[in-house]
Design brief:
Rna Polymerase Sigma Factor, Chain: A; 0% strand; 8 helices; 2 domains; Arc Repressor Mutant, subunit A; 179 residues; mainly alpha
């Protein structure tokens, strides 16, 4: 997925409703997946992804919107909102009721094992630094290339490689310590 935005950022400053709508249609699914992966909560992910676009409109209205790369701006904003949400949730933990209670008799062992591995991985991810979580999410959940990740994180490619290596090493250590 190339990092090139198909939208002219100068035209975006005019707050053209059709352009804002096109940007929302183009980037909402991507931002939503990113947030959902980080939070593992679909409802919070919808709210936060929507909030990213509200902040885009507010930033454009205040003439402080994205200057060079719209996609990077959206991901950086989403990352900041997710981090704020995680800090708030950490301070005031809430338990969520499941909408559907799974039929335990119909559950397959493979599904249980896959879910267990995913849960262990997501739990281990919370121990990593914010930058480590961010790089792994962009690279493996979103499928960003090293170059796209570097641009989005405002780092050089070698720094992203090193951050990714350290994050994977830490994740490996955490998972091995918990088994």
């Amino acid at each position: 997925m190339p990092m090139q935005d198909q939208f002219n950022l100068q035209d975006l400053q005019g707050l053209d409703p059709e352009m804002i709508s096109a940007i929302y249609d183009r980037y909402f699914p991507e931002v939503y997946r990113f947030v959902c992966y980080r939070l593992n909560n679909e409802h919070a992910a919808e709210d936060i992804a929507s909030d990213v676009f509200i902040r885009l409109i507010e930033a454009l209205h205040a003439s402080r919107g994205p200057q060079s790369n719209l996609r990077s701006w959206l991901y950086a904003t989403a990352s900041h909102i997710v981090n704020d949400h995680l800090r708030k949730t950490y301070r005031q933990p809430q338990s969520e009721l499941q909408e559907m209670i799974p039929d335990k008799a119909a559950a397959l062992d493979l599904d249980y094992e896959r879910q267990d591995v995913e849960n262990r991985l997501k739990e281990a991810m919370t121990v990593l630094t914010e930058d480590q979580q961010y790089v792994l999410t962009l690279r493996f959940s979103q499928g960003f290339s090293l170059e796209d990740t570097a641009i989005t994180m405002n780092k050089n490619v070698n720094a992203v490689k090193q951050l990714q290596f350290r994050a994977l090493s830490a994740l490996h250590r955490i998972l091995n310590d918990r088994t």
